[in-house]
Amino acid sequence: MSETGRHEDVPEETLPGERETAHEGAVATAENPFADPGLPPHEHRAQDIDEQAAKRSERTVALLFVVSMIATVGFIASYVAIPIDKIVYIWPIGHISALNFALGLTLGAALFCIGAGAVHWARTLMSDEEVADERHPIEAAPEVKAKVMADFAQGAKESQMGRRKLVRNTMFGALALVPLSGVVLLRDLGPMPGTKLRTTNWKKGVRLVNQSTNLPLRPEDIAVGSLTFAKPEGLEEDDEEFAEKIAKDALMLVRIQPQNIKDKHELSWSHEGIVAYSKICTHVGCPISLYEQQTHHVLCPCHQSTFDLSDGGRVIFGPAGHALPQLHITEKDGFLEAANGFEEPVGPSFWERG
Amino acid sequence: MSNETSATTTRRGQAPRGERIADWADGRLGIYSLAKSNMRKIFPDHWSFMLGEVALYSFIIIILTGVYLTLFFHPSMAEVTYHGSYVPMQGIRMTQAFESTLNISFDVRGGLLIRQIHHWAALVFLAAMMVHMMRVFFTGAFRKPREINWLFGFLLFVLGMFTGFTGYSLPDDLLSGTGVRFIEGVILAMPLVGSYLQMFIFGGEFPGHDIIPRFFTVHVLLLPGIMLGLLVAHLILVFYHKHTQFPGAGKTNNNVVGMPLLPVYMAKAGGFFFLVFGVIAAIAAIASINPVWAIGPYRPDQVSTGAQPDWYMGFAEGLVRVMPGWEWNFWGHTVNFGVLIPIVIFPLVLVAIAVYPFVESWVKGDKREHHILDRPRNVPTRTGFGVAWLVAYFVMLIGGGNDLWATHFHLSLNSLTWFVRIGFFVLPVLAFIATKRICLGLQRRDKDKVLHGRESGIIKRLPHGEFIEVHEPLDQEQLHFLTQHEQPEPLELGPEVDENGVERKLSRSQKLRAKLSKSYYGEDNVIAKPTVEEYKEITSGHGHH
Amino acid sequence: MKKLSARRRHPLAALVVLLLALAVTGGLYAAFAPADKAQADDTAQSLAIKEGKKLFAVGCASCHGTGGQGTSDGPSLVGVGAAAVDFQVGTGRMPAQQPGAQVPRKRNIYTNAQIDQLAAYVASLGAGPSVPEKSQYNSEGANIGKGGELFRTNCAQCHNFTGKGGALTNGKFAPTLEGVDPKHIYEAMETGPQNMPSFGDGSLSQQNKKDIIAYLGAVNGDESESPGGLDLGGLGPVSEGLFGYIFGLGALIAVAIWVAARTTKAKKS
């Protein structure tokens, strides 16, 4: 197959101008200069009249198929020979996996050459004469339609659907009810919401632990202009439900000069200017934490909601609908701790949030 | 149909082996009657007719590579500590889904390549569907009898988007996990049922342990299964309707001009599959995609800037990003419009393009079959609408990547967001007007060309010193091509009172329809194509100047 | 409408359109280019305090005041420490060239000795973080994996997964960390330049910082591996989508054009 492109239909090509035009397409230029002239006469390619040219095409096609075979061999060789962790520098791509590069290129070449060979074969050796096919209307002929309608009417009548209404109505009733079993079966997909969306693990007396160092935070750890992330004491990374808990408990701590805090309520929940806000965006719950220490703005990287941490976490830009929840914190025995749990649900809004 | 005594029966009554197998199959499957109408089926040649093929082949590539990936991927959210060969992840806690994705990338030979082919093919699949859809739209190929097939194609595009989303979420990396968290927010924003749906879909609180396995089922079974069905229906209809063709000499509404399936299209379409696969494999060798090892495993308290979905979801992302933060609180309930409105607009924008064929055929009152494609310039209103839709789409794509556009073009993120907010409403209108005018200009030029010939570029100096450019008359083929389109009269409402002087009742929809019809065929919206008389007068008279 | 169509063919029409387009582009750019809300930071102190003071008077005093007490154009440098000076001047951010949303990194115009003198002078104005020792930021004894996790918790939200940078509000941005000296990264964490928050030892321990720097060295250095091939800027799906459209679909359309093109005909004899 790959060695000899077949081309038996080349010699008996019809001569140019010999064939008829596809339809009425007249040359009635006198009456209508815009008339459809019909299909133009077929013109020959070099390959159709010159066996030399055809041979050249044949060799090109065969060469492409041979290159494909070589590339496949190359693929297998690369798979066997190149270690998976080998990194090579290829300009201008960079330091990349040698195996991935070699496998991809050989596979690409093997496939591409098959395609290129087939297409070149079709383009240069197979007949390129355009032919016209008739179209037929999709719509059925009137007599066909009449027959179908009659058949249907007869079938409907024989079923007695129309006459025996009780049978019909109870059947519809049964069919309408039976999918309910499927719906009921979905009930155990998950638990009821209960208060899960409203509660976090923060409550009075829970210490704030630094996410990075895993140490309880002291007020002096948090300088003006710094940013620190905290979790409730007792929550460890290898806990069973760490992800579910940190998804609600994550906290960011910043210190703002008390005179720069515009919101009185915020000030009263802060400790020496240290304020603790939920890290979970009130829009759709991304961990918002792009804190600009000079403007006290915090930006969400997902949808650019911007909150002002010096003004009660108010939304100043973007699609978030309400302020970031603040956690009331205080100091005890030199460590920061929650003075209370969150007073409102953290994270995105939901219908029952209120 | 199957007759045992075939014409080619050779001596001793034994047909060639291939024929005997075919006979056997025909006796059971009726393949000869199938082949009779299809083996030499004619397909017209045009590169833009192959965009759908690109989509089809990338879908096949996705299925082939996807099956391979399932052999190694563990759709589990059980947590493990990584000890594999990628050093910067060693000792990190992650789910098995993420761990197995790292293993596919670093410990399975060729796994990285297959992963990258799978993902690149997905991007190309959606891109090809989009461009294919635009080709069909702008050439009017969706007209009767192909409206249903247009809807099939549209559904494939929409399902493709969600298959893509569930697919790139599977590795449970920090980027896609952020996307899943977004979905949680969207579900929570549903009025009444939001918090219940969230609990049911995630099997408890976010992220839970169920969402990745559930996405896996949806991604590898449910959605591709539906898509496969739609795809087969789509292809059957393409065969059944026979392909549309561009206007030209010898091409009419009652024929299809091209080359036969066997052998030319077998070779071209079959070969094209290998070409598409080859190109995508080469891209997967050269360019990295979704390098989850650089992104890291998902943790709900971590995030990276530049958190975007794959491109086909980018337009929805844009809608969400540029939405102002509106929220309603009443009687203890909250409606999060910042999420809800974009999530409603998102399908509406898509549906606008999906129902367009039905609107157009209603406006035009056109019940005929159309197999000759329109040149976009000849239907300025449709072309204008299509461009306006694309502009709205791309403005939102910019909105979806506003942070990256801001940093890379040194713009302000906030101003860019405002630009998108306003541009989404203003730019499509401008695009509509501009496109229509360009179309009309092109129609004028066509008319000029028909009447005065082609500008030859040859400058001649007349005896009295004037310079003129010689115009060459067009041949009949071109004259036909430039004048074959139809220009129907707009729908008339008729007089407002009937012959008895009684006011006629016109329904609102009738008035709307007449108005819209004018926007297609009214005086300002079409350049009357040259008539035979005009042409004869100019050509027979003083000749070309 | 008629008028417009008639004038469209005027020889100068193209020029007018071009000028209009340029004006619109320029106008849009001016409208979107970040407004100037310059916030400079810090600079200089002493042993060679004297030398530093001289340098300070020439390069820094116009904005930060002759005594580093700050003016309306630049913040006070009292208490910012030597590390801040080393970072700001060492990365070329200071002295600032032009007002803008943010002072960008540029070529450093001072010698190391001069920077030390400036740092000494500024440190003399009030106590602050000093320039870190090499042992604090080299990769010896660092845990790359842990560094990655810390980076994703504390840094990636602004600087992207592998430190390619990202956007902040109103034209401000978190710069790319590519090619930034580990010392400067350490100093930036310690001092919080411009709008970056600081990460003092109470927030990120010294070991934490070391881990982060080691992680960055592994994923964002000159020798960093990108096993899959071109990293496309490490920006995620946006650049992947563009690449997919331009090179993926683009290449396939080019191939399709070849497949569907008419074969060259033999010359008519």
Provide a quick synopsis of the model.
Chain C: It comes from Streptomyces kronopolitis. Chain C: It catalyses: a quinol + 2 Fe(III)-[cytochrome c](out) = a quinone + 2 Fe(II)-[cytochrome c](out) + 2 H(+)(out). The complex is a heterotrimer of chains A (354), B (545) and C (269). Chain A has 354 residues and is of the alpha+beta class.
General description of the model:
The complex is a heterotrimer of chains A (354), B (545) and C (269). Chain A is of the alpha+beta class and 354 residues long. Chain A has two domains: 1-131, no CATH class; 208-338, Rieske [2Fe-2S] iron-sulphur domain (Rieske Iron-sulfur Protein), CATH 2.102.10. Chain A is built from eight helices and 14 strands. A five-stranded antiparallel sheet of chain A has the order 4-5-6-7-12. A four-stranded antiparallel sheet of chain A has the order 8-9-10-11, with no helix packed on it. In chain A, strands 1-2 form a two-stranded antiparallel ribbon. Residues 1-7 of chain B have low confidence and may be disordered. Among the domains of chain C are: 49-125, Cytochrome c-like domain (Cytochrome Bc1 Complex, Chain D, domain 2), CATH 1.10.760; 134-219, Cytochrome Bc1 Complex, Chain D, domain 2 (Orthogonal Bundle). In chain C, 49% of the residues lie in helices and 1% in strands. In chain C, 53% of the residues are buried. Residues 36-46 of chain C have low confidence and may be disordered. The chains are: A alpha+beta (354), B mainly alpha (545), C mainly alpha (269). Chains in contact: A-B, A-C, B-C. The interface between A and B is large, with 106 and 122 residues.
